[in-house]
Design goal:
The chain is mainly alpha-helical and 186 residues long. The protein has two domains: 7-103, RNA polymerase sigma factor, region 2, helix turn helix motif (Rna Polymerase Sigma Factor, Chain: A, Orthogonal Bundle), CATH 1.10.1740.10; 113-186, Orthogonal Bundle (Arc Repressor Mutant, subunit A), CATH 1.10.10.10. 73% of the residues lie in helices and 0% in strands. It has helices spanning 8-22, 26-47, 52-69, 79-101, 118-135, 139-150, 155-162, 166-185.
């Protein structure tokens, strides 16, 4: 997976903040949080199916884990890449726990009809329709679609993160794309 920031200065700043965090500097960790929270929230929001409250909870859990595991960051990748993977794992672990507690998914209520005007509103409506279609996917299919198509993970990485076979990851991606297409065509 590629890093989000190609700027070497950003990488150097993150490295310095990580070292300060390792020595117990909470202000340095707060800076890391501010630098990375928006991207991590976007990932978690998509993995949570557009559930704002769940994404917020997962964001906090991801940063708590990052604080707890900062010593395990070896610097073999950029901090943002490590944090991204850790956060995806937090979301996937949460999903496994919720699946144990819930026997079936709750159907989404139909949204109110939108009235749009102008090209900008139409694009916004299309984006909302796409996000709604992704949010409505079964959880495994949604996780694979988000991780592969949006976040750029390979099927091997997804298989490693989710515990499913590579073939299952590919099948879930195919299923997710088909369901999104069908939803958008309606």
């Amino acid at each position: 997976m590629t890093s989000w920031t190609a700027d070497p200065a950003t990488h150097d700043e993150d490295s310095a903040l990580v070292e300060r965090t390792r020595s117990g500097d909470r202000a340095a960790f707060e800076q890391l949080y501010r630098r990375h929270r928006d991207r991590i929230y976007g990932l978690l929001w998509r993995l949570a199916g557009g559930d704002d409250a769940l994404a917020e909870d997962l964001l906090q859990e991801a940063f708590v884990r990052a604080w707890q595991k900062i010593d395990s960051f070896r610097g073999e990748s950029r901090f943002g890449t490590w944090l991204h993977r850790l956060s995806a794992n937090v979301a996937l672990s949460d999903r496994r726990l919720r699946l144990r507690r819930v026997s079936r998914e709750v159907a989404l209520e139909d949204g109110a009809e939108r009235i749009v005007s102008g090209e900008r509103d139409v694009r916004a409506a299309e984006q909302m329709d796409l996000e709604h279609a992704i949010a409505g996917l079964p959880e495994r299919a949604r996780a694979v679609l988000v991780l592969f198509d949006i976040e750029g993970y390979s099927h091997a990485e997804i298989a490693d993160m989710t515990g499913m076979a590579i073939g299952s990851s590919k099948a879930q991606l195919h299923r997710a794309r088909k369901l999104v297409r069908e939803d958008l065509e309606q």
